[in-house]
């Protein structure tokens, strides 16, 4: 990329992407709760209302089902809405419009329409907000044909994938981990896209493949550094999209390393890790495995309020270190 | 001192609560309103010191609303509460020590450290819980009222919610069902003018939330939520109706929150003047205190006594919370399902 690159936070990168999208295309607009003068619960929309006006940065009432439905209706009739949920947990109130309408409208109408809506979901734990404001529900939506579900892990990808989402003719659900919003990283100026449906190898290695999503990519990279000093060479795959999932990149990696560890924040069972594991079990990479596949996911509990309990609920770097050492030393 | 004016308003001229309650009960109400105020301040202070994490929504300025609604309720009656629910919890009878313990994430807390501020509850005094989901409590209250009716109990259920919640589908669905089945439930909208940053004028198609009662064929009552007597009177009326099997009521209690929405609010959607005006001219505790003195129920020394007692109660509660044990990590997965015996 030849555009100049600066350091931006993940939140700033998203904001910049939304501004570029709105500048380029009159049809693009934002909807959500308190995204105007308040700037959004996580300050992602920030001052955009001052630049683009209240007609294009629309504060909705507290009406998730209705709001999501309005976005779907606008999208199907030619506009390009970007709808912000204040917390991903509130997707539960809008499931009807997301799952029954947005995801299926094109199919049910035999391809006569498309639904180019983008929905943004601040997700994940670590803020002390307890059980109803800390969930990782991406696998729920990942289960629905018709939706695309992405989890950018860096400011660079947050911007590029959001712009790809706006350009995409189908509904794209973006899960943004709240703890990433303040993280800084290099972001090119101007317009660029990062493809939806392509995983990225963040670190090459020979001994073990860690497939991670969102904030877990950073924890995996941190663990990989420690493991390197111990002579364990880890490859870290950032899945980036969970639907459609780039299983080929994972398969190729596992063929190289012969070991697989999946790390994700959502509840462990019936989640992203199960799908990645199954992709390996169903592929020729299965014959390359030197050890059983290991999944590290969220505990089988709602997210607790107490900070120590909360931390214990999701995979942390020491958990990844232990799992990796056990895997490589054959203790699993 | 204050007795001089007691004769000015007598009998039917007296505001409702002075006719309905004994001086002792009226002083108790002031005590509880102070307890709520100081609890909120203590929570805020503990948060600033890093003793409490996460976020919280303070109800400072809305004490008369919580207290007035709960005055006619018995311990057997139930409530559902909101994210701004500390006041409801105290007004319904919870102990502040166990509330602080919860905020500090301790095992002695009402939710054993699992819930925190946003899920504070005390089932033993009939509080089925605050809620992290705007509007989440309304249908639950209707369900609790269904139980009350089915089991032929005398119980009524109050559902507190904010003005913002009246634009959720759950509000409309809940009111409709409560009405068609004539359930003993009282919907209490604490309209503090804003749902986070969005004023009711910008979020809500009707001028008053109470106007929406008409759509569900129930009485819609508007009260000055900072006037304890007015709130209590409306609550009495609604409770009477509910207990008599006549069905639900929607009460709109107009009030104001002095603090920001939560711990991360820059207050850019309202003016300093507006906040100042409510704080200095319409503070519910000041208003009530002045009125109590005017009617000779309490004198300055009595007020000082209440303040001092509350100060001690809050200090002790915080100490209790600090000294309490934290949950063990080994118990992380407890309470997800009902433990088999
Ligand atoms: C379903 C849902 N949507 C959004 C939120 C985020 N949120 C929490 S409180 C709040 C404002 C609620 O306003 P109101 O009902 O008026 O209560 P108040 O905060 O004024 O007491 C919002 C938007 C939420 N918790 N749940
Ligand atoms: Mg409000």
Regions of chain B with pLDDT < 50 over 5+ consecutive residues?
1-8
- Please indicate the percent range of residues of chain A in DSSP E strands (runs of 2 or more): 15-25%
Task: Catalogue the unreliable spans of chain A.
Answer: none
Q: Largest interface by residue count?
A: A-B, 36 and 42 residues
What does this structure look like?
The complex is a heterodimer of chains A (332) and B (341). In chain A, 37% of the residues lie in helices and 20% in strands. Chain A has 332 residues and is of the alpha/beta class. In chain A, the strands form three sheets. Chain A has a seven-stranded mixed beta sheet with strand order 3-2-4-5-7-6-12, with helices on both faces. Chain A is globular and about 60 Å long. Chain B is α/β, with parallel strands linked by helices. In chain B, 43% of the residues lie in helices and 9% in strands. Chain B has helices at residues 16-20, 23-48, 63-70, 86-92, 96-103, 137-150, 169-180, 200-203, 228-243, 272-281, 284-294, 300-323; strands spanning 78-80, 157-162, 185-191, 194-195, 198-199, 220-224, 249-254. A five-stranded parallel beta sheet of chain B has the order 1-2-3-7-6, sandwiched between helices. A two-stranded antiparallel ribbon of chain B has the order 4-5. The longest helix of chain B is centred in the first third of the chain and has 26 residues, at 23-48. Chain B is globular, with a radius of gyration of 20 Å. Residues 162-164, 192, 194-195 of chain B line the site of magnesium ion.
């Amino acid at each position: 990329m030849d555009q100049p690159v600066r350091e931006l936070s993940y939140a700033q990168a998203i904001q910049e992407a939304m501004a570029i999208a709105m500048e380029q295309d009159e049809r693009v607009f934002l909807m959500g709760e308190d995204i105007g003068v308040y700037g959004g619960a996580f300050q992602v929309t920030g001052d955009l209302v001052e630049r683009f006006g209240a007609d294009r940065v629309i504060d909705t009432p507290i009406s998730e089902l209705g709001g999501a439905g309005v976005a779907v209706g606008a999208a199907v009739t030619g506009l390009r809405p970007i709808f912000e949920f204040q917390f991903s947990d509130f997707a539960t109130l809008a499931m009807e419009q997301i799952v029954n309408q947005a995801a299926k409208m094109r199919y049910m109408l035999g391809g006569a329409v498309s639904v180019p809506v983008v929905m943004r979901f601040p997700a994940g734990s670590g803020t002390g907000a307890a059980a109803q404001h800390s969930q990782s529900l991406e696998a729920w939506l990942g289960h629905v044909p018709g939706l695309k579900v992405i989890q950018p892990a860096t400011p660079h990808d947050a911007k590029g994938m959001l712009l790809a989402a706006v350009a995409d003719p189908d509904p794209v659900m973006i899960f943004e981990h709240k703890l990433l919003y303040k993280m800084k990283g290099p972001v090119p100026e101007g317009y660029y896209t990062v493809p939806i449906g392509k995983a990225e190898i963040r670190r090459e290695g020979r001994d073990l493949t860690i497939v991670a999503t969102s904030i877990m990519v950073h924890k995996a990279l941190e663990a990989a550094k420690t493991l390197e000093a111990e002579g364990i060479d880890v490859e870290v795959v950032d899945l980036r999209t969970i639907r459609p999932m780039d299983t080929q990149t994972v398969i190729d990696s596992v063929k190289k390393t012969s070991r697989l560890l999946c790390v994700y924040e959502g509840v462990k069972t019936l989640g992203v890790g199960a799908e990645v594991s199954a992709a390996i079990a169903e592929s020729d990479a299965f014959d390359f495995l030197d050890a059983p596949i290991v999944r590290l996911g969220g505990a089988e509990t709602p997210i607790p309020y107490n900070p120590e309990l909360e931390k214990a609920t999701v995979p942390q770097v020491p958990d990844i270190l232990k799992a990796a050492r056990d895997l490589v030393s054959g203790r699993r | 001192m204050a007795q001089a004016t007691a004769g000015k308003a007598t009998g039917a001229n007296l505001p409702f609560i002075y006719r309905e309650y004994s001086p002792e009960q009226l002083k108790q109400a002031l005590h509880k309103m102070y307890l709520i105020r100081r609890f909120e301040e203590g929570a805020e202070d503990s948060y600033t010191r890093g003793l409490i994490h996460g976020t919280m929504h303070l109800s400072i300025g809305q004490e008369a609303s919580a207290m007035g609604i709960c005055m006619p309720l018995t311990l057997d009656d139930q409530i559902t509460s909101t994210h701004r629910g500390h006041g409801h919890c105290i007004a319904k009878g919870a102990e502040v020590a166990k509330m602080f313990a919860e905020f500090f994430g301790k095992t002695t807390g009402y939710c054993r450290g699992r819930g925190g501020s946003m899920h504070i509850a005390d089932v033993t005094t009939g509080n089925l819980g605050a809620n992290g989901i705007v509007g989440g409590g309304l249908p639950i209250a209707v369900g609790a009222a269904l139980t009350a009716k089915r089991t032929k109990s005398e119980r009524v259920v109050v559902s507190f919610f904010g003005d913002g919640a009246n634009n959720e589908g759950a509000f409309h669905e809940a009111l409709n069902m409560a009405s068609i089945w004539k359930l003993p439930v009282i919907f209490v909208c604490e309209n503090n003018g804003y749902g986070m940053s969005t004023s009711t004028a910008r979020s809500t198609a009707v001028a008053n939330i109470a106007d929406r009662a008409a759509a569900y064929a129930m009485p819609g009552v508007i009260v000055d939520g900072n006037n304890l007597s007015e709130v209590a009177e409306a609550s009495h009326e609604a409770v009477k109706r509910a207990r008599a099997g006549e069905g639900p009521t929607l009460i709109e209690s107009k009030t104001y929150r002095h603090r920001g929405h939560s711990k991360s609010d820059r207050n850019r959607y309202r003016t300093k003047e507006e906040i100042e005006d409510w704080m200095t001219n319409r503070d519910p505790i000041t208003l009530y205190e002045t009125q109590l003195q005017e009617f000779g129920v309490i004198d300055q020394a009595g007020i000082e006594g209440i303040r001092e007692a509350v100060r001690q109660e809050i200090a002790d509660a915080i100490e209790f919370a600090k000294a309490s044990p934290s949950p063990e990590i080994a118990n992380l997965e407890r309470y997800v399902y009902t433990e088999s015996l």
